[in-house]
Amino acid sequence: MKRIPVTIKNRDYLLYEPDDISRLKGMVLFMPGKGQRGENIAKIEETGLPRDLAPNLGGHESDYAVLGVQIPTSKSGYWRGDVYTWDDWLKDRYPQFEKTHLTGLSLGGIATGQAMNWPETRDRFATYGIVSGWLPSLNTKMKIEELDKYRGMRVKVWHDADDPQVGGARNYGSLGHLLARLKGDIDISIEIYERTAHAAWNNAYPNSYFDFLDGKELSEYQKGYAAGYDSGIEGGKIMKSVEVANALNLKFD
User: Fold this and answer.
1) Rounded to two decimals, what is the model's pTM?
2) Domains within the chain, CATH numbers bracketed
3) Model confidence pLDDT, tens digit, residues 20-50
4) DSSP character string of the chain
5) Percent with pLDDT over 90 in the chain
């Protein structure tokens, strides 16, 4: 992967691009967590996709171009205007692709979930990858027409069952709600881990996330990881979204 410093509206970011641009499959906008805010863009390589893709760190190869962004410490979260600016920049650089894949971890994962509610979001983003973040908050009293904006979305959540910072209960309820009400009109799934605390991104990125973009089933690594947990080995547990819905036994009006 090539590590390319870029400047967008007087702020520095990092772009990771395949060495062979002819094999490019798409473009990803990655938003890091609260701890990576600041003015030193190298901080985003402490974790997540930038760490995995940086040639001198993880060295992972990908067929996707990934723009790693950063917000200043003075900001408490991601603003829609900034996200759309970054998205527009990607579309200008890679006009062959109509939509961007949006993902983030922790604070960035929360923003990715929030983006599902933003105007024009379905016209901009092909997928939403929420890592240690939250889906939109939904409740069983919502009318079916209030959920129309989620139809046709492709969404995946990676979360630890006992995340001490971003609790998973909200995700389970929202996911079960979307499954029960929209049925086949939304492509949504979740991977639940245990013993990863708040750092589910160490398992989500890069392999599981890129498998999601490529529409692959669970990899042999992921299956082994789940089996490892079930046999008492330190690891995690992966549940399909339908299993989550059944386990919750949610009831809707």
Assistant:
1) 0.87
2) 2-248 (3.40.50.1820)
3) 999 999 999 999 999 999 999 999 999 999 9
4) -EEEEEEETTEEEEEEE-SSGGG--EEEEEE--GGG-SS-GGGGGGSHHHHHH-TTTT----SEEEEE----TT-SS--HHHHHHHHHHHHHH-TT-S-EEEEEETHHHHHHHHHTTSTTHHHHEEEEEEESS-PPP--TTS-GGGGGGGTT-EEEEEEETT-SSS-SHHHHHHHHHHHHHHGGGSEEEEEEESS-TT-THHHIIIIIHHHHHHT----HHHHHHHHHHHTTSS------HHHHHHHHT----
5) 61
